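sanity check this record:

:::
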Amino acid sequence: MKASTGWLATTGAEFSAGVGRSGVAQLTHYTVSYREWGEGPPLVLVPGLAGGYELLGLLARKLARHFRVISYQLRGEDDCFALRRRFDLADLAHDLAEFIDWHCLERPAVMGVSFGGVVALEFAARYPGRLEALVLQGAGARFQQGLIQRVAGTVLSRVLLPADNPFINQFFNLLFGGRQQGPLFDFVTRQCWQTDQSVMAYRYQLAEQFDMTGRLDRVRVPTLALVGDRDLLVSEGSLAELCAGVPDCRLVRLPGAGHLACVTQPERVAEEVRCFLLGRARAARD
């Protein structure tokens, strides 16, 4: 039986992570849910501030044509009571290291999106021998406060919002890089609201403290930095510092994309990742 176009649009199934192979891993501080897609060289995909790995479903499925993609839920995603025990970016990087060990992966490629890029960059600096390559989308060398960032931080931390708040949902248009309506917009807003507001606010506070200045040279693996040319959350200064500080860093701009390029342009993002990772693997063999 074929699913109707209307049903796919209503449920967001066309953008979701699909079935994949699901499981749980017991880490020191929490039990993590994860999902895998595809076969090939391992690629660990770190999700962003809200929405969990379900938000990256379409990207994961594109990447799974060439890689064994493994994504997981960050601490607090499935249990907001995890915030009772305070943690920082170093702890989230350690969670990632434990998760990689649990899967017995020697040196996988790691890709982080938005806040996940912050976690991945922290991981690469603290555990440089534990990954083969690093891919960042929507992340720079440090958090740089601007008007949009101040408003977002204030609203998340001080205003109790109802789920699916229409006013706040309009903020997503800035993340898309332009006005976006229809099934994709509905899927993104609905999925992001699956993350508890307290968890979003706490992660945002961690992002505000993020600053890799003086530590970028610890990232000793080939690094690909992807950024939408309409991304209002990643400053040019932060990108410049990233590319200047990481010894082997390549910057690729995505025309017409905002901060959510992984959602709006998954095919382009996946192709850039494929060319970067597989191209370097071929070069190493030659």
